[in-house]
Design brief:
By secondary structure, the protein is mainly alpha-helical. It has one domain. It is built from 6 helices and no strands. Helix 2 runs antiparallel to helix 3, helix 2 packs across helix 6 and helix 3 runs antiparallel to helix 4. The chain starts with a helix and ends with a helix. This is Acid phosphatase/vanadium-dependent haloperoxidase-related protein. InterPro entries: DUF212 (IPR003832). It holds the Pfam family DUF212.
Length: 161
């Protein structure tokens, strides 16, 4: 097999990898939806929502649940690969509502403290910390539902082999 055949085989296997495509589509949908949820909430378009973390729905949750659901739907829910994906998804979603959410709240408090410093203080001109890092439980739940719906929706679009 020459390099061209290997590249074609790899491309074909990646482009037909249902769990991987489900994860990417789940992520892209969640990030796109954030653009609209921000507009409804703040009445302004914020293109940074397409790549930023935090917000409604959780793209982290959508990604990992789409991956886990697609693996379960493709390979069965009783296998070790699904078990791994499910545990991975639970850890990611727990982290989003725990550590990352609290880190964002701490950044908010620290930014307020720095904002109130006198102008001559050495930290007064420091760049603000990112505040939108984690997710609230509803954002994680909606992201998880979006991921599952994405995997099921893509399954119905797959060509029958």
């Amino acid at each position: 097999m020459d390099d061209h055949d290997e590249a074609a085989t790899m491309h074909s296997s990646i482009s037909s990898n249902y769990p991987l495509i489900s994860a990417f589509v789940g992520f892209a949908l969640a990030q796109s939806i954030k653009l609209f949820t921000t507009w409804f909430k703040e009445r302004r378009w914020d293109l940074k929502q397409l790549v930023g973390s935090g917000g409604m729905p959780s793209s982290h949750s959508a990604t990992v649940t789409a991956l886990a659901a697609a693996i379960g739907l493709q390979d069965g829910f009783g296998g070790p690969l699904f078990a791994f994906a499910l545990v991975f998804a639970c850890i990611v979603m727990y982290d989003a509502t725990g550590v990352r959410l609290q880190a964002g709240r701490q950044a908010e408090v620290l930014n307020q403290i720095v904002y109130e410093l006198p102008a001559e203080h050495p930290l007064a001109e420091s760049r603000p910390l990112r505040e939108l890092l984690g997710h609230t439980p509803p954002q994680v739940i909606v992201g998880g539902i979006l991921g599952i719906v994405t995997a099921i929706g893509l399954l119905t679009l797959r060509p029958v082999k």
